[in-house]
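Annex B.
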Amino acid sequence: MHTTPSLIMAQKEYLQAKLTQFLREDRIQLWKPPYTDENKEVGLALKDLAKKYSDKLECCENEVEKIMEEIRCKAIERGTGNEHYKTTGIATIEVFLPPRVRKDRKNRLETRLHITGRELRSKIAETFGFQESYIKIVINKKQLQLGRTLEEQGVTHNVKAMVLELKQSEEDTRKNVQVEEDEQNEAKLKEKRIQRTKRGLEILAERAEMVVDPETTPYLDIANQTGRSIRMPPSERKALVLAMGYHEKGRAFLKRKEYGIALPCLLDADRYFCECCPELLDTVDNYAVLQLDIVWCYFRLGQLECLDDAEKKLNLAQKCFKNCYGENHQRLVHIKGNCGKEKILFLRLYLLQGIRNYLSGNGEVACDYLSKAHQLFKELYIDPTKVDNLLQLGFTAQEARLGLRACDGNVDHAAAHITNRREELAQIRKEEKEKKRRRLENINSLKGMGYSTHAARQALHQASGNLDEALKILVSNPQMWWLNDSDPQTNNCQESPSQESINQLVYMGFEAVAAEAALRVFRGNVQLAAQTLAHNGGSLPPDLQFSAEDSSSTPSTSPSDSAAASSASTDEDMETEAVNEILEDIPEHEEDYLDSTLEDEEILIAEYLCYVENIKSATKKN
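NEDD8 ultimate buster 1: predicted structure tokens.
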């Protein structure tokens, strides 16, 4: 059988994991006698141990001995580093470089932990030949923050640091000055894209909490598996919008195979998902899909060993799928009528579990998972002629794949399924837009009565959208009006109420002192002042009396206001650009995450099944 470089590398990784496993089980410490002498040189006992393990693994003794010597040297190096850290406080960081520079590079770096992230990045760039501005560092599944110290970010001795490269180093890519300039510009553009992604998602998340016209202003909403909006507390909604937004952006980079830019987005998504309540994460499959995407991204970067909790993430994904879809997918079938499309997630899960177990030395377990993935691949494979038939009917290739998988490959059933789903979604979207429009009208009605946007939104949320109930809530709780509101139209501050307004309230029967105090609190709004005084027997409630004095002072106009106004249009253009860039990557089809041609998966399943089959067939060469 022909042996390829990738097969040799995979076999070595498997052997290394298996030998590490044996050493741990037998409680053998290679850095101590009789395997290491007093001069830290290899002892004769290592050869005997290599013979024992090569017989057990049925593979070449020389290869086993060579790998065990590598393990021994690394253990000694690690022990030396531990002693050095204890005596000097200088920590060792294991640096995982991109594949193109990883070969024959010593990936260990010594540093003190009180330095900043920026200083560590500079040291890594200088040591390994990168341009500082064009690399990102990931430690403990988080991007290294440049302005904070390593200690503040939880960086410890022997931690693993992964380098993500936005461009190749000068010595590898310099062909001429123009090429170099082009690549630097490309790296800068990539960094700007990451920053625009962050700003665009923040804007869209803020709009999710605002009241916007659905016909004219783009915003992100949270919908369930049928496409209907989900009600939830504002703080959780914002975190979830950011989490899902970063996930979609990361998935867009994954599709373009830009894994170095995808990973920071996916890790940010993971961070925001963790701000949501655990009960929510158990009922939606987004979080499980994200775990798969993170592990997939690490694998595609060739850095799966840098993800210490890959097994934990895959197990978490499996648990989330079970909670969300139900045992044997019965909840999913009840909601959607089938589970054919979701099987693709389990194919990816089993494939990654197979790869991880293989690289951990668990050949038999890897074989079981890879066989499951292979079986699902055969079930999900689609005849290209069937896709062509549906394309001729006016459906997209994505709709065709999803429809055929939902209908077990039946073209007629798939066509009907796609048509019905189009009609259902069109109706749901129409209803959701109408609901959004009604909410906007109700808020405008309350604003017309003098209430702030913030107060109106909060009251309507408590009243489940009922305008009359919301008004009762506002009248009964006048302190709700005293909420910061960014809307200048409802924020008319004045230093003191006009005598005319005070006279109006006195004419209604209120005391002049109480009238003036109420007008100060409500910034001259006669209607709100009258409602509150009437509701509270002619005086302000105690919790609003403190603000009567505070509201009399109005901040003066800043001399820089006009200057700020002149740049407003520029800022607005930049925000529009950032939002549009996000929206371009939000897929039109709500089941885009379930669509795949399975081309990559097919290659990897075959490749790793081949590796597993070669484990026992490897012959002795000694």
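Residues 399 and 418 are 7 Å apart (CA to CA). The two ends are 19 Å apart (CA to CA). Further annotation is deferred to the next reporting cycle.
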